[in-house]
Amino acid sequence: xxxxxxxxxxxxxxxxxxxxxxxxxxxxxxxxxxxxxxxxxxxxxxxxxxxxxxxxxxxxxxxxxxxxxxxxxxxxxxxxxxxxxxxxxxxxxxxxxxxxxxxxxxxxxxxxxxxxxxxxxxxxxxxxxxxxxxxxxxxxxxxxxxxxxxxxxxxxxxxxxxxxxxxxxxxxxxxxxxxxxxxxxxxxxxxxxxxxxxxxxxxxxxxxxxxxxxxxxxxxxxxxxxxxxxxxxxxxxxxxxxxxxxxxxxxxxxxxxxxxxxxxxxxxxxxxxxxxxxxxxxxxxxxxxxxxxxxxxxxxxxxxxxxxxxxxxxxxxxxxxxxxxxxxxxxxxxxxxxxxxxxxxxxxxxxxxxxxxxxxxxxxxxxxxxxxxxxxxxxxxxxxxxxxxxxxxxxxxxxxxxxxxxxxxxxxxxxxxxxxxxxxxxxxxxxxxxxxxxxxxxxxxxxxxxxxxxxxxxxxxxxxxxxxxxxxxxxxxxxxxxxxxxxxxxxxxxxxxxxxxxxxxxxxxxxxxxxxxxxxxxxxxxxxxxxxxxxxxxxxxxxxxxxxxxxxxxxxxxxxxxxxxxxxxxxxxxxxxxxxxxxxxxxxxxxxxxxxxxxxxxxxxxxxxxxxxxxxxxxxxxxxxxxxxxxxxxxxxxxxxxxxxxxxxxxxxxxxxxxxxxxxxxxxxxxxxxxxxxxxxxxxxxxxxxxxxxx
Length: 695
Ligand code: NAI
Fold this sequence. Notes:
The protein is α/β, with parallel strands linked by helices. Helices cover 51% and strands 13% of the residues. It folds into three domains: 2-277, 2-enoyl-CoA Hydratase, Chain A, domain 1, CATH 3.90.226; 312-492, Rossmann fold (3-Layer(aba) Sandwich); 497-639 and 642-691, Orthogonal Bundle (N-(1-d-carboxylethyl)-l-norvaline Dehydrogenase, domain 2), CATH 1.10.1040. Helix 16 (401-411) links the parallel strand 13 and strand 14 (415-423).
């Protein structure tokens, strides 16, 4: 687990766990023992800590975090945190200089170990990430991060890094002072480490010295107070108090930095224990660690199917989705061909992908040679014959049945003999598309989210006749491109579009009820959604929602007059031409030249506002969340979703459903079952059946 070797008067301690280097009870014990061995060996004058694995040290492992969160006993969590702090303190104060040789990612506890060392050298490779991302997962650093980082680089930058949980490339980490040196090869890493030990016999970090002063402004200076005031304001604005981990991390910095380091570390462990015993941390750990990881292991992949061996991927449509999906495929190593009929769209798609690649190089996320290989793998064409032999075709043309079925017929001759055809449709039932393609067994839905180069979720939709092999290969592909896949059965809007659509509709209903638009948007944020419902309608485009409604009415042969998209859609699309952000006008105005968007002032003419008493706010906020939960239950009931836990992950990764609740199903537990059902009953009696929970 920890390999110890000698290099002259120095010891090398390498993390080498069977799979991934992580912190758990066993590895912490093994590390502490190895450390003690070298610290008490009088022949040894210094230590280099490194790794034999791809990562330096990835932080606490899943089971450990889950076990602590489930225990929900602050005393027990404090002890676990303090035990690790003591080992890291021993690294720092054991009397021998210690260098961290960071040859792979050092995140969370992994970077906290490096922080306790006396010098940090990292390999300059873009794949390596360094930082303290705990707060993004509902947690906070608990092994010295909130104490050593501010003492090392000052309040301003450390607060920013801790509260935003940013992961830095080695060169960014150097620039911000998180590490001291960069090297270009693994060999240099150890040599530089040994060379540093040669010239440094002292083994003390400055914060252990009496005369230590914080770099930059102190907490109690006017500037320090301003930094905290600004951090608190940013926190409120971003989290509305939903994330205790953020507040506790801030408190740990504020209180801990004013006392000697060891006391500061104790304060941190106390706040860490408080954070982990909240329902929010439990919910987020469960969904974002445990369940997300479960999905990455492809639980719904049919067994006994050989792995996919895709080489060439074709994307039909170089629009907003197609161009981004193409970039994702080329980055994952596929020979990628993007086909459109519109030369302008193709040109723009190429510019789009190349500028993403350039940006990644600039940020040191890609090396110039990796960037060049990705560019080589990207091809833009208007000619079907270039697609010959494609193993996978992903269709992302207009959301229109006729156009889609025509391209399926056109592309079929160019699909390899066992190739599969996927549609990125966001709403059209897959079974009917599969029929029009005449390829029912080799047809599947692959619903990406916009912006596809960033959004981590992929919703895979089974048509009635989709073959197990097609599903297996679609899942292998999802894994290869680094997306988290969920598998759902066919149905209008599948799972994700169907559920998040109810959030937008609830906002539209409120508009009709006379709730002031700015209040609707603010309450959406306060409920925990990342975007207000009206802004979201503009993003999705009101015309798309309206045409989906019309298509549904046509398919079902009924009028959906109760749907607020029906009359608001008619007004905005047919009368006002305000179809959404893509034309610069919808519920918002989008000033040219990147000015900040603002709510369209004329909204009040069409939807006169009434006054709303603050006592109504709770109902309004709950309506936003409960309406989605009720729809999710309905989708599950109808068999669209295979597993509720998949729905939790999808709701957070797909459309940002209040992450602190653990997702759209876990919401029930987060609220408390009894309270949840009482509240749902109340909302359904007062506002309508859409809040009824069906089980
Ligand atoms: P878009 O309008 O930006 O792009 C569609 C592209 O298809 C255009 O470049 C057009 O020239 C091209 N095209 C049309 N007919 C073609 C043909 N016969 N052969 C080749 N190319 C053709 O649309 P967008 O937003 O990229 O949507 C594409 C698909 O992705 C739709 O099915 C949509 O429902 C789905 N989708 C959209 C999302 C979004 O947020 N916009 C999210 C998830 C899925």
